[in-house]
Amino acid sequence: MTGKASPDRRRFLTAGAAVLGAAASAQLWLPNTARAAEIPLPDGVFSLGVASGDPLQDGIVLWTRLAPDPLNGGGMPDSVVPVEWEVAEDERFRKVVRKGTAQARPEYGHSVHVDVRGLRPGRQYWYRFRADGQLSPTGRTRTAPAWHSIRGNLRVALASCQNWQHGYFTPYADMLSQDPDVVLFVGDYIYESTPSSAGPRRHEGTGEPYTLTQYRNRYAQYRTDPDLAAMHANAPFVVTFDDHEIDNDFAGEIPQDPANQSHDAFVARLTAGYQAYYEHMPVRAAAVPTGPHIQMYRRLNFGRLARLNVLDTRQFRSDQVTSQAAAQDPSLTMLGAEQKEWLLDGLKDSPARWNLIASQIMMAETDILLGEGKQWFYDAWDGYQVERNALLDDFRSVRNPVVLSGDRHLTMISDLKVDYADPASTVVGAEFVGTSISSNGDQDQAAFHAQWDPLRADNPHWKVIDAHRGYHLLDISREGIDAQVRVVDTVVTPQATPSTLARLRVDAGKPGVRVV
Ligand SMILES: [Fe+2]
Fold this sequence. Notes:
The chain has about 525 residues and is α+β, with helices and mostly antiparallel strands. It has one domain (about 145-515): Purple Acid Phosphatase, chain A, domain 2 (4-Layer Sandwich). It contains 8 helices and 22 strands. Helix 2 (about 170-180) packs parallel to helix 4 (about 225-230) and helix 3 (about 210-225) runs parallel beside helix 5 (about 265-280). The protein is globular. It binds fe (ii) ion.
């Protein structure tokens, strides 16, 4: 959704320069006469920090949410509150380039989403908010490279699956030190599970969230993790949701357990869950939900170096099947007809060197039956065989497709093949399944390998499998992608020791991935 023609860009830059001229002399904000001063706000309205997301070559979304009592509905008065924002070229806000006032509305949980435009491509900016005299922490962000740019390096961090109860989000502390240009989060930002004392941390509340206030409290609790908050304040995120933002393994308007959640009750739950998701994510107004629907599939361009197609593999999918035969039913869909057409159009017409696909769930095959025959996980792309195989076949005519996934709570890095029944099948791309930030906690590595290593004979496309917590770091350049599997030794304590578990390379023009 980028790729603005250069006349537009020039116009934005001119507008930006005018604002710069007006603001340069005033290093401190003047008193805001538009402020609704009659209702003083409680202290600590910026408890959830700041975030940015969905970078364009000339723009970025800035986010905050006013919540002085974050785990109890937010604690804000039931009125609209003006929130000033400013964007500067420097950390001390001497060179302010854009500024304005946004409205924090009670019906959106006093969240603020500012869609700033008129910025310059491929550069860092700092931003902050002010409400009723209270100043937010300062955030740092970065715009996408210019639309024609193919040079340089784009550093993407691939993250997913952060279960509060399974551990501290220690991989983000390492990610912060690696200074990615953008963080791609592919689902399970929260878990809807009931509070439990079995792990190192406990969910707020008394049960699973169903109402808007309950979902707000859950998101707010997650945002109090200091490593997650610091990462949000230091790089833009591109997010999509998977199942646990609402309900485990849901499909469209079908809950995990239809016997216990009526259709009407689940539609109400989707409506609440999607709204809380929007309220807490740095996404554009296109993602404002309409009842039980949210528009999340979208495209972002990083110059001509990389195009990122962010999928929605939850809202439009057929219900999960329960047998191998059923998984091969050609009527099953993961994407729905409209999204599938949108994806194929965006892949085939792409001017980009790298065509990235953010998929919540794994695309390469996972055959968990030792020896003859196959056994798949039906919630992943394996459960939607015919559509998956057709898409992989289409990858033959796509320039350098790379799929970035989550869900599995494992690192699984694979060649993408046209036909997994044929060991000699054509390789058409590469997939990185980026383990989890904390979900599954500290796994027994020996037990994992004892169980999974024998399956490698059945899955020769797997290049690395591993059960440490962490994320993947991808350095994308014109010639290739250098990837690192970054892991931590533990998530059960707030501090951890990071390391590189594996290094891999994807060469442009040569489908597949190899360990280096
Ligand atoms: Fe997960």
